[in-house]
Amino acid sequence: MKLWGGRFEKSTDALVEDFHSSISFDQRLYKQDIQGSIAHARMLGEIGVLTPAEAQQIIEGLKGILTDIREGKIQFEIGAEDIHMNVEKLLTERVGTVGKKVHTGRSRNDQVALDLRLFLREEIDHTQELLITLLRTVLNLAKEHQETYMPGYTHLQKAQPISFAHHMMAYAQMFLRDLGRLKDTRKRLNVSPLGSGALAGTTFPLEREMVAQELGFDGITWNSLDGVSDRDFALEFLSAASILMMHLSRLCEELVLWSTGEFQFVIMDDGYSTGSSIMPQKKNPDVAELVRGKTGRVYGDLIALLTVMKGLPLAYNKDMQEDKEQVFDAVDTIQKSLLVVEPMLRTMKVNKKAMAEGAKGGFTNATDLADYLAKKNVPFREAHEIVGKLVLYCSKRGCGLEDLTLKEFQEHSDVFAEDLFESIGIEYCVRQRHIPGGPSPESVAQAILWTEHILEQF
Ligand code: ARG
């Protein structure tokens, strides 16, 4: 017998039973569902819709169900559709008719909106913890490598020398913004929809604030239609998760590239690499690749839910049951990814020598040579032209700028003097970029301090 069976003459088709049931996945919300029902029942008792004894019976019954689910003693029923009706059915089986009163002034529509908000709030907190751990590892790498020089790239062509610390600090900024996005999502998410009913509130004088407070919300939703039909909070989470995955994916892409024989900038720890079933010599950065690949899943989750929501008339529609698997999948994917990227990064070896070697080639000091001329009053565009010619001259001879004689420099411009050689040394090039946000060791140290300061707010 269905909890809603009164107006039906026939039972649900067996195919439909299976098709529309969500218990196989929404059982993951059991804790939040029971938490919500306990707060609702307690409030019904306070306002006199239930007697204190009835409220107490319901609360005790719900607590017992919570323990039994935790201990794996409960077999959920597909026939009871979802977690909400499974719990209600169990309650009535345990405490009798009074259990049938728990749903007074409530609908599954506001119930499920509540459960998902409670669930996401917890998962956002946990995700933030994982992200902070990763960010601290990134900061530690930056602290260690302020004088580890490497080439910076644009178009994946060598551009200007930087330090490995500076490169890591770029990711620190990304992760800091990810933390901000999660915090922001949590703030908007943290209001209680309970009391919205099916769509039009309820005739019972529910104390919405009381329930909201008990459940740790900052307030309540202010439109009952929106209360049950809004999934912005899930979409905001999925957006933040997608951007976070994009950052992880870019980092992983660089690790894949850097661990190639051609680069050899890093050596991944054996624990985070795998071999080949045929090629005995192989050591592949599979973990980094898989994180890059899993980014697609999270984007998929976001696009799926955006698409589910886009054509829905107000208020609740069954389509919205499709929100949960996307949210669960994204939560699992970002948490597992964060969990594995942190130690992968922490245990990898940084090949300072290969990085420093790489920083030297490819005329990474050409801008600095142009700057040298510009500082001696040559208009920058002319300086650019002169250095361009010098680069061409070197390319034809297969050497670098630092390999030329003063005479060869002076054949291109008489502004050049002996001090030019200092200005094109790789370390000097980096040190001179001591602008805030720049790659010089002192600028990076400043950025680390600033980042640590912002991190204290989380
Ligand atoms: N299982 C449903 C969901 O996840 C719960 C709400 C169902 N409400 C309804 N009126 N059918 O969205």
UniProtKB/TrEMBL annotation:
What EC number(s) does the entry state? 4.3.2.1
Where can this protein be found?
Answer: Cytoplasm
Domain of life, per lineage: Bacteria
Which pathway does it serve?
A: Amino-acid biosynthesis; L-arginine biosynthesis; L-arginine from L-ornithine and carbamoyl phosphate: step 3/3
Put simply, this protein is called Argininosuccinate lyase
A GO molecular-function annotation: argininosuccinate lyase activity
* Top-level class of the enzyme under EC nomenclature: lyase
Q: Does the keyword Amino-acid biosynthesis apply?
A: yes
Q: Which UniProt keywords apply?
A: Amino-acid biosynthesis, Arginine biosynthesis, Cytoplasm, Lyase
The record's Pfam families line, in alphabetical order, gives: ASL_C2, Lyase_1
GO terms of biological process kind = L-arginine biosynthetic process via ornithine
| Mitochondrion among keywords | no
